[in-house]
């Protein structure tokens, strides 16, 4: 067996997935450094609507993804309770077609071990009186609301406490090769203007929708679809539970209470440039209408913000229709096996809910590569308070 402390791993990407990987790495004894070109969580992590998925949204199409999400909800609620509002999700039937979907939905939830309880229209309205009174009932599941910033910061706090180096506003410019093996990265500090070469034994590409760009530095074509989606927030908390349409996942079918806001999402399109997330005007109109259909009072609330986030869908697609059919599961790609380039792993796919599991499975691969026999502990040990990250001094 090898000594993990002799192995230096560079993680590129300071979102939720990068945070979970970094924490797992140092918890298992590896030396680890993370680079993020902007502020931590400034990419897709800091832009999603904050839904903690029980897996019910995906379960009809993919039982395994649904089961994985449910497992992670249970884990995250235990290890990072300060980042989670343990409310519920209600998949509401607003018409006969959605009501007819109930049996298929409940059966899929049962097969994936996702608790699901049917509520009559009277019960739903007693819980959420602002919903459209014409609703026909709903299925309650253990969805929740998560804080998109605090949850990753729990992991960053733990990683830093164990000795990880975290460098934000530091952009990776190129990969350093020794033959066909990646042996380091060159980085540019955006604050000081300094350039630096950092040697390492492995690079982990955790850049989400930007993963194709980093892979391209190694002449690797990564099968990934950057798929932006628009979200719209109005001022005022109109519901206390997440409200979802009882139908297969589609656009504009989730209303999330986030502190004092109501967020309706989302849409989906494709882009060749993950930095280009300009919100289409038509999306705002569409999402406003969708929210009013569920909660008529939405039209009386004040506009707050519209924005877009890039989903890093695993797999290549040439049309929006193909993109919608891609799995919401994640993939850890070892480029030595797939592309004859040693020294780099790339992650594609995944969701905020599964960030910890993505970290675990990635570091499992790292342990196999370097013959390290140290089990993962992130599912059982509570995370440090996210505030501890700031109490330990400024970023280096």
Topology:
Blueprint: E1 8-12, H1 16-27, E2 31-35, E3 51-52, H2 56-59, H3 63-79, E4 84-85, E5 89-93, H4 96-100, H5 102-111, E6 117-119, H6 121-127, E7 137-141, E8 144-146, H7 150-161, E9 165-167, E10 170-178, E11 181-189, E12 195-199, E13 202-205, H8 211-216, E14 224-235, E15 242-245, E16 254-258, E17 261-265, H9 281-294, E18 303-314, H10 320-325, E19 330-334, H11 335-339, E20 344-349, H12 355-369, H13 388-391
Parallel strand pairs: 1-2, 1-13, 2-9, 5-15, 13-20
Antiparallel strand pairs: 3-8, 4-8, 5-7, 6-7, 10-11, 11-12, 14-17, 14-18, 15-16, 16-17, 19-20
What does this protein structure show overall?
The protein is α+β, with helices and mostly antiparallel strands and 396 residues long. It has 2 domains: 1-48 and 148-223 and 318-396, FAD/NAD(P)-binding domain (3-Layer(bba) Sandwich); 86-143 and 224-314, D-Amino Acid Oxidase, Chain A, domain 2 (2-Layer Sandwich). 30% of the residues lie in helices and 28% in strands. It has 13 helices and 20 strands. The chain has helices at 16-27, 56-59, 63-79, 96-100, 102-111, 121-127, 150-161, 211-216, 281-294, 320-325, 335-339, 355-369, 388-391; strands at 8-12, 31-35, 51-52, 84-85, 89-93, 117-119, 137-141, 144-146, 165-167, 170-178, 181-189, 195-199, 202-205, 224-235, 242-245, 254-258, 261-265, 303-314, 330-334, 344-349. The strands form 4 sheets. It has an 8-stranded mixed sheet. Strands 9-2-1-13-20-19 form a 6-stranded mixed sheet. It has a 3-stranded antiparallel sheet with strand order 3-8-4, covered by helices on one side. A hairpin with an 8-residue loop joins strand 15 and strand 16. The radius of gyration is 21 Å and the shape is globular. Residues 316-326 have low confidence and may be disordered.
């Amino acid at each position: 067996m090898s000594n993990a402390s002799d192995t230096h791993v560079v993680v590129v990407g300071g979102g939720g997935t990068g945070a979970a990987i970094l924490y797992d790495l140092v918890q298992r004894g590896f030396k680890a450094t993370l680079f993020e070109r902007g502020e931590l969580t400034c990419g897709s992590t800091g832009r999603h609507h904050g839904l903690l998925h029980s897996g019910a949204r995906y379960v009809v199409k993919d039982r395994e993804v649904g089961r994985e999400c449910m497992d992670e909800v249970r884990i995250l609620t235990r290890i990072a309770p300060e980042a989670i509002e343990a409310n519920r999700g209600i998949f509401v039937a607003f018409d006969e077609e959605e009501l007819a979907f109930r049996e298929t939905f409940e059966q899929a939830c049962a097969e994936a071990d996702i608790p699901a309880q049917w509520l009559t229209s009277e019960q739903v309205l007693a819980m959420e009186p602002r919903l459209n009174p014409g609703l026909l009932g709903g299925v309650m599941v253990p969805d929740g609301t998560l804080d998109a910033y605090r949850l990753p910061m729990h992991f960053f706090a733990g990683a830093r406490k164990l000795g990880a180096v975290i460098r934000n506003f530091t952009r990776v410019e190129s990969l350093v090769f020794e033959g066909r093996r990646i042996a380091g990265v060159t980085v540019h500090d955006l604050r000081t203007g300094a350039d630096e070469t950092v040697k390492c034994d492995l690079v982990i590409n955790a850049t989400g929708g930007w993963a194709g760009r980093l892979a391209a530095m190694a002449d690797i074509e990564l099968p990934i679809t950057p798929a932006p989606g628009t979200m719209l927030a109005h001022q005022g908390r109109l519901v206390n539970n997440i409200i979802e349409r009882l139908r297969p996942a589609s656009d504009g079918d989730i209303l999330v209470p986030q502190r004092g806001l109501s967020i309706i999402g989302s849409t989906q399109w494709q882009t060749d440039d993950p930095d280009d997330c300009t919100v289409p005007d038509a999306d705002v109109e569409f999402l406003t209408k969708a929210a009013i259909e569920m909660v008529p009072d939405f039209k009386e609330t004040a506009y707050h913000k519209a924005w877009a986030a890039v989903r890093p869908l695993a797999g290549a697609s040439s049309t929006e229709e193909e993109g919608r059919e891609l799995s919401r599961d994640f993939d850890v790609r070892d480029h030595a096996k797939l592309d004859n380039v040693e020294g780099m792993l790339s992650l594609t796919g995944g969701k905020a809910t599964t960030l910890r599991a993505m970290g675990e499975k990635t570091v499992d691969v790292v342990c196999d590569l370097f013959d390290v026999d140290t089990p993962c502990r992130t599912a059982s040990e509570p995370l440090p308070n996210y505030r501890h990250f700031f109490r330990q001094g400024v970023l280096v």
